[in-house]
């Protein structure tokens, strides 16, 4: 039977279009129930004895949720207790239209076999399809469609032969009007919370309930705290006319009353708008897309350099905000003022479930508690739970439901518990979730594209590749490395020239474009290394076996082979797919030992020496060109082999062989970058490192000046040179500190598509062009570069997406994002392990250097542990000492003592676990001793400290 | 124009018949052939109608689009006509064969319908000077068996009656920018008042008499014909003479009187039919093109 659906829609040009779609009705759509004997279905999804124990429905029943229930209460529906649910097509379509993430979650539940969720295509069923009636809104029509379907189901199941066992269909809706009408029609209908509360034996589900609108009002006081958000139409009109700006809201990590809105302009023309104060922030949450209105110029303020955290007990909603906000105002210099605005509307919320912990309310019986997210960009969330005592001390996930204008905090609900706080597995899970690192096991679909084991090289493979098995190839990697993606060889040619080859694992041979494996790798973007854990980008079979260039096995490689003269000048470059057989996999230290051990004279050692010699020349040339040698302290944990707890910690040491391998990798990357750019000027995937804006160096120049050292930042070369000569007598560590500071001034290096950009320069390496070619096992960018190069030398075929610069560009964005997140995750993991380490150590007394000076704190670096910490000079419970901050220095005068950058100080380090959520390393000053009672001596027991000092 | 070859003997036969008020198919001089009207036949138009008159068949579709009002008449919408003489109707229309006839027909239609007296064009205005509805009236000739004008005019009237224009609201913001907002209820629409929409009556001068609704054979016997458009009150809104022959003033007066009479009588049954069809709503069984 044919029906047509008609609707009108507005076109982009402002016209109006009538759209007519054909709609076919059928009579062969089955009900999906085991009870039914009429429907000719192969396998019924809904069970005969659909039993969820409920005090409201003691009989077996199927549930039919309406759209709003699915949208708002998906967390409850995800619970395995909820089974035998009929999802109507009307509901599914509406959910899909309104929220893609919820739709995906719903689809996942439906696909789960054990859950018995059945999709009933009521819109195409002859008896349940209804047409919209005159005067009926789209929502009313859908509600009616749902009721009609429920009615049909209850009659259908009743007439079925075995209908005697009293199987019923229960409609769940929170809509009062819908409920009344359903009752009139004689349907069994309950409100969702009524039903969930009636479940016997599953009281914890109640906590997952999202607050519905009518509950919210009672939670909060009547006082309106925030200005109303403008409706979307007004916001859009305002943006069009230029009176509002649209941008991404970025809450400040350090100050909960401050945020910036990043407004993406045309091309380079992007601005940041500062937002200060609760009223102006107006309920925006980190990463929301918001509309801001600029304040008049005389109300513009400077970003405050105060560190302010929203902690303590829940603030009353009608607390005097002035009190909270007065700390923000400080002396204003005209130059420091920045464009300041206020949030007038939210264009798109970007809420996700947040990890964090519960602050249990002081009132014992209270079911409302505040939840503190781990991410400090996110405000605290008010949730309702009756299991507060169990959840205290656990890491939990919470989703925000809404933020009414009369509530100080957003309202949310409990999603799930991740485990006890401070436990290693929980914390690792938290940091992976918080950094959006995909870390689930690889799906079957992905694994199905792996080569079949046992795998061997076929004669066809050999025919397409150059046989380099006879060469003395070896690899040098950090200890414990199982994903070896590069190997080297060196030999002297008969013509007196030198041949050096870089052999990179040929991952693109195994990962073919477009399949599930490729898509998964593209999404993950990079392998994430945490302390003692690796989140692979490609399944282990590839990363640690087939692609890994282990010694004494034949492996596919993509080789870059140069002919060099003795001055390390490139005479010829050649790329080829090859088969190699590595003769040795060494660690950096082993390689170094071989080079240094004069008694060894085997082939491998000789090659290593040759490589080392060339590498030194290459490095010198590079530095002459202005490449920067920067420094950041990296720490390495010695892990206990059984508990995987850190037992010792040391900063990573670099040996010559590190830079030897690095030199040749750089050379390979540059050669490949040039080759793919020559071949595909529009679609080469390259990596650039923009020169930082001069203002970035201010802090570095100021800091150096305080020690009477001049730093020139006109060019990379000038910077490198002045860093080289920057030395202060009796201050060995000064140079390293400067380099650490310089590193902080740099921009992020990013991947980009050559067709979309014109600036290719790599500032740090002082190379006009650069890409990543040498680590395809752990970086997806390298796989793309491999494919491009393979096409360029005719070793592989191309595919459309590879040459599409827009697709490439989107890919680059994802890679850059994943890359950044993996770095953050890595740092967070190090921080967590540092905390574990200090937990067992008690209070330590160490020497350190002042790295930054802030308005109310100094940031201290402890070189021994590569650890950075903040020493606060003001605290809430004590009168703060007399602080004078001078931005020019920058210096901070605490009572009589003035702190400069690079000052040497002594601090105590201890683990502060008073707030288990944010366990942090607490540092307190012990030297210089600032006289006066108000000296901010640490809260850690002075007794213990003194003993340490005495020793 | 589609023509048929008629022999002299046939012509005489037709002529003599008409003189005695008896036409070849048995009609009197002022009788129409059997007429069928069906509206809402093309779902993706805003209004449509199909009319068959004897073997003549025309299809009219009306699409409403938002446009800018004509500068001189800022507070009115307007109509646009296009007549497609499909080669389905007659092989003569193949290629560009129908173009001339199409232009001639649409020019007449502009004159007859596109004025404030026929249709309340002011109701088509959305915001004066900025937005108005433009009704694109597309006429498709499916089969030609004489008397195209009358069939087309009836079809247009029926299609206008059937036209449902989505209701729009103009929302303006503080800056004076205007935004058109659309109701999401497909039933929330505006109807046109077609009471004053005229119908065309074509009178063919054959011998000393004149006939309405001439077939192709009769047409071949005629030297000139008069087109008059008549409203339900019998007011003549337009008249035109077509054909190469001449008409004497006396017979023009006679023809106009006859046209008025016939035209006035045409409206009430048409409106009754349209309203009847409308009242059936969704339950109506559509005939369409295969019935």
Automatic annotation (TrEMBL), chain A:
It comes from Xiphophorus maculatus (Southern platyfish). GO terms for molecular function: 3'-5'-RNA exonuclease activity; endonuclease activity; RNA binding. This is Exosome complex exonuclease RRP44. Its cofactor is Mn(2+); Mg(2+). Residues 61-180 form the PIN domain. GO terms for biological process: CUT catabolic process; nuclear mRNA surveillance of mRNA 3'-end processing; rRNA catabolic process; rRNA processing. It is found in: Cytoplasm; Nucleus, Nucleolus; Nucleus, Nucleoplasm. It comes from the Eukaryota. Pfam families: OB_Dis3, PIN_4, RNB, Rrp44_CSD1, Rrp44_S1. Component of the RNA exosome complex; within the complex interacts with EXOSC4, EXOSC7 and EXOSC9 of the exosome core complex (Exo-9). The catalytically inactive RNA exosome core complex (Exo-9) associates with the catalytic subunit EXOSC10/RRP6. Exo-9 may associate with DIS3 to form the nucleolar exosome complex, or DIS3L to form the cytoplasmic exosome complex. Exo-9 is formed by a hexameric base ring consisting of the heterodimers EXOSC4-EXOSC9, EXOSC5-EXOSC8 and EXOSC6-EXOSC7, and a cap ring consisting of EXOSC1, EXOSC2 and EXOSC3; DIS3 associates with the base ring of Exo-9. Its main location: cytoplasm. The keyword Acetylation applies. Residues 465-795 form the RNB domain. One of its GO terms (cellular component) is nucleolus. Belongs to the RNR ribonuclease family. Keywords: Acetylation, Cytoplasm, Endonuclease, Exonuclease, Exosome, Hydrolase, Magnesium, Manganese, Nuclease, Nucleus, Phosphoprotein, RNA-binding, rRNA processing.
TrEMBL record, chain B:
InterPro entries: ExoRNase_PH_dom1, ExoRNase_PH_dom2, ExoRNase_PH_dom2_sf, Exosome_comp_Rrp42_subfam, PNPase/RNase_PH_dom_sf, Ribosomal_Su5_D2-typ_SF. Keywords: Acetylation, Cytoplasm, Exosome, Nucleus, RNA-binding, rRNA processing. CDD domains: RNase_PH_RRP42. Residues 32-166, 196-261 form the Exoribonuclease phosphorolytic domain. It is found in: Cytoplasm; Nucleus, Nucleolus. One of its GO terms (biological process) is U1 snRNA 3'-end processing. GO terms for cellular component: cytoplasmic exosome (RNase complex); nuclear exosome (RNase complex); nucleolus. Its main location: cytoplasm. One of its GO terms (molecular function) is mRNA 3'-UTR AU-rich region binding. Belongs to the RNase PH family. Component of the RNA exosome core complex (Exo-9), composed of EXOSC1, EXOSC2, EXOSC3, EXOSC4, EXOSC5, EXOSC6, EXOSC7, EXOSC8 and EXOSC9; within the complex interacts with EXOSC2 and EXOSC4. The catalytically inactive RNA exosome core complex (Exo-9) associates with the catalytic subunit EXOSC10/RRP6. Exo-9 may associate with DIS3 to form the nucleolar exosome complex, or DIS3L to form the cytoplasmic exosome complex. Exo-9 is formed by a hexameric base ring consisting of the heterodimers EXOSC4-EXOSC9, EXOSC5-EXOSC8 and EXOSC6-EXOSC7, and a cap ring consisting of EXOSC1, EXOSC2 and EXOSC3. This is Exosome component 7. It comes from Xiphophorus maculatus.
């Amino acid at each position: 039977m044919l029906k047509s659906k008609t609707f009108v829609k507005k076109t982009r040009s402002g016209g109006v279009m009538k759209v007519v779609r054909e709609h076919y009705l059928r009579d062969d759509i089955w009900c999906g129930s085991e009870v039914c004997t009429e429907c000719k279905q192969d396998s019924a999804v809904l069970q005969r004895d659909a039993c969820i124990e409920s005090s409201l429905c003691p009989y077996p029943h199927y549930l039919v949720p309406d759209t709003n229930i699915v949208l708002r209460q998906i967390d409850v529906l995800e619970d395995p207790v909820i089974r035998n649910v009929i999802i109507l097509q009307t509901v599914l379509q509406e959910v899909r239209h309104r929220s893609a993430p919820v739709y995906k979650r719903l689809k996942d539940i439906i696909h789960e076999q054990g859950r018995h969720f059945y999709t009933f295509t009521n819109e195409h069923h002859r008896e349940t399809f209804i047409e919209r009636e005159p005067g009926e809104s789209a929502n009313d029509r859908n509600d009616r469609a749902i009721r009609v379907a429920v009615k049909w189901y209850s009659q259908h199941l009743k007439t079925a032969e075995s209908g005697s066992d009293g199987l019923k269909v229960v409609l769940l809706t929170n809509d009062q009007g819908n409920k009344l009408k359903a009752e009139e029609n004689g349907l069994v209908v309950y409100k969702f919370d009524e039903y969930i509360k009636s479940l016997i034996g599953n009281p914890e589900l109640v906590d997952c309930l999202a607050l519905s609108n009518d509950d919210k009002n009672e939670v909060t006081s009547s006082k309106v705290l925030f200005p109303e958000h403008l409706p979307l139409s007004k916001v859009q009109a305002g943006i069009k006319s230029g009176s509002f700006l649209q941008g991404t809201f970025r809450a400040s990590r350090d100050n909960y009353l401050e945020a910036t809105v990043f407004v993406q302009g045309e091309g380079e023309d992007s601005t940041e708008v500062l937002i200060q104060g609760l009223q102006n922030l107006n309920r925006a949450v980190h990463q929301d897309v918001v509309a801001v209105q600029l304040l008049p110029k005389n109300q513009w303020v400077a970003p405050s350099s105060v560190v302010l955290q929203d902690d303590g007990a829940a603030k009353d909603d009608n607390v005097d905000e002035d009190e909270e906000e007065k700390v923000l105002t400080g002396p204003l210099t005209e130059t420091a003022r920045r464009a300041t605005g206020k949030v007038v509307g939210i264009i798109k919320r970007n809420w996700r479930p947040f990890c964090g912990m519960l602050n249990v309310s002081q009132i014992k019986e209270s079911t409302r508690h505040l939840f503190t997210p781990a991410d400090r960009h996110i405000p605290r969330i008010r949730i309702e739970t009756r299991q507060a005592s169990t959840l205290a001390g656990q890491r939990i996930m919470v989703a925000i439901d809404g933020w009414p204008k009369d509530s100080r905090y957003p309202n949310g609900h409990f999603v799930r518990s991740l485990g006890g706080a401070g436990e290693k597995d929980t914390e690792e899970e938290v940091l992976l979730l918080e950094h959006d690192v995909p870390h689930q096991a690889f799906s079957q679909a992905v694994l199905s594209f792996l080569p079949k084991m046992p795998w061997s090289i076929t004669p066809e493979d050999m025919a397409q590749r150059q046989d380099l098995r006879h060469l003395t190839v070896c690899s040098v990697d950090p200890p414990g490395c199982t994903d070896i993606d590069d190997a080297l060889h060196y030999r002297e040619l008969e013509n007196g020239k030198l041949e050096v080859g870089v052999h990179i694992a040929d991952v693109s041979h195994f990962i073919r474009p477009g399949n599930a494996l490729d898509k998964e790798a593209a999404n993950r973007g990079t392998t994430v290394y945490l302390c003692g854990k690796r989140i692979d980008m490609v399944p282990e079979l590839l990363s640690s076996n087939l692609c890994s260039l282990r010694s004494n096995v034949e492996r596919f490689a993509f080789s870059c082979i140069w002919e060099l003269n003795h001055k390390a000048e490139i005479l010829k470059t050649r790329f080829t797919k090859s088969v190699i057989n590595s003769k040795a996999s060494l660690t950096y230290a082993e390689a170094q030992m071989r080079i240094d051990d004069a008694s060894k004279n085997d082939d491998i050692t000789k090659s290593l020496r040759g490589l080392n010699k060339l590498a030194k020349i290459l490095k010198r040339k590079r530095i002459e060109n202005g490449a920067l040698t920067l420094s950041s302290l990296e720490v390495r944990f010695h892990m206990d082999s059984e508990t995987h707890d850190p037992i010792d910690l040391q900063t990573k040491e670099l040996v010559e062989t590190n830079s030897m391998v690095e030199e040749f990798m750089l050379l390979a990357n540059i050669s490949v970058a040039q080759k793919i750019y020559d071949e595909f000027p529009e679609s080469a995937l390259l990596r650039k490192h923009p020169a930082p804006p001069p203002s970035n160096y201010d802090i570095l120049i100021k800091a150096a000046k305080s020690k009477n050292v001049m730093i020139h930042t006109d060019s990379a070369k000038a910077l490198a040179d002045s860093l080289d000569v920057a030395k202060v007598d009796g201050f060995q560590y000064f140079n390293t500190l400067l380099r650490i500071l310089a590193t902080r001034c740099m921009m992020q290096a990013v991947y980009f598509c050559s067709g979309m950009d014109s600036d290719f320069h790599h500032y740090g390496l002082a190379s006009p062009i650069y890409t990543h070619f040498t680590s395809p096992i752990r970086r997806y960018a390298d796989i793309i570069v491999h494919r491009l190069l393979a096409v360029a030398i005719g070793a592989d075929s191309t595919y459309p997406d590879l040459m599409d610069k827009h697709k490439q560009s989107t890919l680059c964005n994802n890679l850059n994002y994943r890359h950044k997140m993996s770095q953050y995750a890595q740092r967070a993991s190090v921080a967590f392990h540092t905390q574990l380490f200090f937990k067992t150590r008690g209070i330590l007394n160490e020497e350190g250097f002042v790295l930054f000076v802030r308005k109310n704190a100094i940031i201290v670096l402890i070189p021994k542990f590569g650890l950075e910490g903040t020493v606060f000079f003001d605290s809430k419970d004590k009168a703060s000492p007399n602080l004078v901050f001078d931005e020019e220095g920058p210096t901070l005068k605490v009572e009589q003592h003035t702190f400069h950058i690079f000052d040497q100080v002594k601090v105590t380090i201890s683990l502060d676990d008073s707030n288990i959520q944010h366990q942090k390393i607490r540092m307190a000053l012990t030297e210089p001793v600032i006289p006066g009672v108000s000296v901010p001596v640490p809260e850690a027991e002075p007794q213990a400290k003194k003993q340490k000092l005495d020793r | 124009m589609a023509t048929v070859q008629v022999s002299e003997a046939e012509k005489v036969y037709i002529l003599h018949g008409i003189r005695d008020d008896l036409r070849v198919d048995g009609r009197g001089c002022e009788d129409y052939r059997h007429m069928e009207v069906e509206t809402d036949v093309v779902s993706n138009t805003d209004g449509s109608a199909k009319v068959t008159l004897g073997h003549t068949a025309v299809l009219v579709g009306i699409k409403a689009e938002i446009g800018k009002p004509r500068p001189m008449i800022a507070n009115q919408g307007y109509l646009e006509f296009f007549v497609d003489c499909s080669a389905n109707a007659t092989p003569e229309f193949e290629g560009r064969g129908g173009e001339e006839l199409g232009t001639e027909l649409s020019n007449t239609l502009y004159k007859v319908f596109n004025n404030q007296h026929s249709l309340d064009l002011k109701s088509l205005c959305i915001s004066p000077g900025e937005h108005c509805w433009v009704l694109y009236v597309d006429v498709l000739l499916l089969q030609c068996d004489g008397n195209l004008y009358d069939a087309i005019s009836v079809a247009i009237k029926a299609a206008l009656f059937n036209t449902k224009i989505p209701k729009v609201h103009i929302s303006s913001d503080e800056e004076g920018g205007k935004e058109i907002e659309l109701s999401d209820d497909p039933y929330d629409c505006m109807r046109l008042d077609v009471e004053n929409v005229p119908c065309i009556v074509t009178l063919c001068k054959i011998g000393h008499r004149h006939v309405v609704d001439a077939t192709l054979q009769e047409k071949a016997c005629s030297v000139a014909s008069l087109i008059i458009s008549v409203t339900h009150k019998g007011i003549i809104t337009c008249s035109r003479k077509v054909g190469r022959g001449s008409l004497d003033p006396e017979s023009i007066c006679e023809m106009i009187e006859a046209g008025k009479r016939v035209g006035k009588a045409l409206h009430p049954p048409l409106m009754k039919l349209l309203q009847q069809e409308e009242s059936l709503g969704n339950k109506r069984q559509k005939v369409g093109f295969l019935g």
